[in-house]
Amino acid sequence: MVMSNSFDTLSIRPELLIGVKRLGYSEMTEIQAKALPPALNGADIVGHARTGSGKTAAFALALLQKIDVSLRVPQAMVIAPTRELADQLVAAIRALAVGLDGVRVLLVSGGNSSRDQRDALQAGAHVVVGTPGRLLHQLQLKRIQTKCLTTLVLDEADRMLDMGFEEEVLGILKYLPAARQTLLFSATWPVSTRGLSEQIQRDPVMVGAATLLDDDVLRQSVVVCDRDYRNLALQGVLAERDPVPTLIFCETRNQCKEVTAFLRSLGVSALALHGELEQRDRDEVMVCFRNESARVLVATNVAARGLDVESIRLVICYELSLDPETHIHRIGRTARAEASGEAVSLVAEGTNEMGRLRRIEEHMDANIERVSGDESGAGNLAWWASPWRTLVVRGGRRDKLRPGDLLGALTRGVGLTGDEVGMITLTDKRAWIAVNTRVAQKACDGLNRERIKKKRYRVHLVGGAG
After folding, report:
1. Which among 5, 177, 204, 226 is least buried, having the fewest CB atoms inside 10 angstroms?
2. Consecutive sets of 10 residues in the chain, 466 residues long: mean pLDDT of each?
3. Is the CATH number of domain 7-208 3.40.50.620?
4. Which CATH superfamily is domain 387-462 in?
5. Under 8 Å CB-to-CB from 159, ≥6 apart: which residues?
């Protein structure tokens, strides 16, 4: 039975309830109800829960509970495996801390200049969130004070180890006080993660949310195909469906790139996310997926870890994972926040993938529906092309740009209608604007000529189909 309680039953400072209520949270999720009481009492925690379970709020509320706003020094540190996840954690912690006047949450990760981060650290922060390599670097340079640090969080600890960050994590720990609370959260629980917990935690309380998936909201199926016709089977899966935000998991970088190229050749608005991409390119890919100028994201496991995209309606496993828990984590990317979703796995007949499928079914205690793959080729998939393209403006919040400034430049200056402008995303140095494909070039050329707040910015187009 899923535990569900009101946040009002917790012994937390009233200022935190302001953030909770503003975010629309009324009752705790299972992992929150299990983790928050012992965490608020100061216990070390091992939290085992899949993506979308609400674990971020569980550790964020616990660490914010202890923050002394009058001391503008780091009192909590959160380590995440990727910059994307670190960005999301910063936003989530800030949102929950909205009632704590003066709390400063700082991102320390790649993609931002070391000098800027140095200046920000010197200005003071209460919570530091970052990736292992950059956090260790700043600690080695003695730019992060740790004498007042009381809470350490490791989020997505299993993927942190998968990505080879164990040495950096252990290096970070050498700079932190021994008398601290350590909260470790992981979607899966392999031997390596258990070993890390034994090294860095003291008598942790083990809490977990159910990993079983809700059949009422997630429809699963397996497409059985010939090993040499996997691409055609994938084409058949998409041909039978209306375009929705779709995530395709691949086992390797090369496979990821090949599948993306194949889909783009059919007219699908698809982009790849893998470990070879530079951080700026990763950011661009994720913006295009979130604003729907890319309808399909083809990703490797590690690259996709930490994605926070609520709108994914279809997950396709191009090849089954060797690990049943990894498979559950993959398909758990859809049917989130009580929305419905679909998960389709391609399985090559007569291969060891059939054994993987049996292990997954045993782990889930369920039989997954088998269907025959359409390997005839379905022609192009033109309806999977997005109606949006993305403009990249080389200016952002540091230039005092706001969404209204960009929207005004496109409507009043360039002549677009409001319906022809979609999502606007701002970061410190960049702005991304979704515009209708029909007017994308007009918008790009026009913004390159227009002055925005008396200044011209370089603008270019990304995204699109093949």
Report:
1. 177
2. 70 93 88 94 90 86 96 96 89 95 91 76 93 95 95 93 91 96 88 91 87 69 92 94 94 94 95 87 90 94 66 93 85 73 92 92 88 74 95 93 95 95 92 96 96 94 71
3. no
4. RRM (RNA recognition motif) domain (3.30.70.330)
5. 81, 187, 301, 302, 305, 306
